């Protein structure tokens, strides 16, 4: 749920990078943080295990500029993909305004993709929300892998809502910014619809 501060003329929105373990959530968020203008971003915070896997979240605040005199602040978070870290996903996702679902294109990860989508469904249910209502885009990541499942198949399996979808290679920066731009636009459009 976005937060509007009329005194400081700021609007805060929260976007979550969700998806199965090792699908490229942290890599995508770090890429966006690294390429944002210096004066428009805060410090990137990563709470990891020793082996670089997300324990709790990665977080970076970004300033998108002004709309109708209000400064738009986007708070980008990743969640840990590990199936057992559901509580961390729930806490981090509290009050979310939009989701970038990062699916792993690798053939062996299809069940993990579906399990993660189910986890997202549960997280949203706890918020009193559901997949039908929330702004969302898909990144079909790791398109460089030799056993990458065709995008049409990923779309059929995961994207029943037919939201925007992007082929990405996060390690090479391919497609990640386009996905981010689209979710940011969706979140802001939804927000202006509520005003
Ligand atoms: N080949 C390939 N590897 C990738 C791609 N994106 C990320 N990786 C690699 O996949 C591994 C996991 O990436 P992370 O960004 O840490 O994944 P995550 O989704 O944050 O993982 P958790 O926090 O454990 O859920 C790293 O070794 C990345 O370099 C990609 O597009 N292609
Ligand atoms: Mg991570």
Give structural notes.
By secondary structure, this protein is an alpha/beta fold. The protein has one domain: 3-Layer(aba) Sandwich (Rossmann fold). 32% of the residues lie in helices and 28% in strands. It is built from 5 helices and 8 strands, in the order ββαβββαβαβαβα. Strands 1, 2, 3, 4, 5, 6, 7 and 8 form an 8-stranded mixed β-sheet that branches. Strand 3 and strand 4 form a beta hairpin. The longest helix has 19 residues. The radius of gyration is 16 Å and the shape is globular. The model has no long low-confidence stretch (mean pLDDT 93).
Which key terms come to mind for this protein?
single chain; 195 residues; alpha/beta; Rossmann fold; 8-stranded mixed β-sheet; 5 helices; binds guanosine-5'-triphosphate; binds magnesium ion
Provide a compact summary of the structure.
This protein is an alpha/beta fold and 195 residues long. The chain has one domain: Rossmann fold.
CATH T-level fold name: Rossmann fold
For the record, the count of structural domains works out to 1
Radius of gyration: 16 Å
CATH architecture term = 3-Layer(aba) Sandwich
Strand % is 25-35%
Given helix and strand content, the structural type is: alpha/beta
The first-level CATH class is given as Alpha Beta
Count of separate DSSP helical elements:
5
CATH superfamily: P-loop containing nucleotide triphosphate hydrolases
Question: What is the topological layout?
Answer:
Elements (H helix, E strand, L loop, with lengths): L2 E3 L4 E9 L6 H11 L9 E4 L5 E14 L2 E9 L7 H8 L4 E7 L5 H17 L9 E6 L9 H8 L6 E3 L8 H19 L1
Parallel strand pairs: 2-5, 2-6, 6-7, 7-8
Antiparallel strand pairs: 1-2, 3-4, 4-5
Bound molecules: guanosine-5'-triphosphate and magnesium ion (MG).
């Amino acid at each position: 749920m976005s937060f509007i501060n009329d005194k400081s003329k700021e609007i805060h929105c929260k976007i979550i990078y969700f998806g199965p373990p090792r699908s490229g959530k942290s890599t995508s968020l770090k890429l966006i943080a690294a390429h944002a203008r210096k004066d428009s971003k805060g410090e990137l915070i990563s709470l990891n295990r020793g082996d670089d896997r997300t324990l709790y979240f990665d977080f970076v605040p970004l300033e998108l500029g002004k709309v109708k005199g209000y400064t738009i602040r986007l708070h980008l978070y990743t969640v840990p993909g590990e199936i057992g870290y559901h509580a961390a996903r729930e806490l981090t996702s509290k009050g979310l305004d939009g989701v970038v679902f990062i699916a792993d294109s690798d053939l062996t990860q299809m069940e993990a993709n579906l399990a993660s989508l189910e986890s997202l469904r549960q997280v949203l249910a706890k918020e009193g929300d559901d997949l039908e209502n929330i702004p969302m885009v898909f990144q079909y990541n790791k398109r460089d892998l030799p056993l990458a499942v065709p995008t049409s198949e990923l779309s059929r399996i995961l994207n029943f809502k037919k939201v925007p979808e992007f082929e990405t290679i996060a390690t090479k920066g391919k497609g990640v910014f386009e996905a981010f731009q689209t979710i940011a636009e969706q979140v802001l459009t939804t927000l202006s619809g509520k005003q």
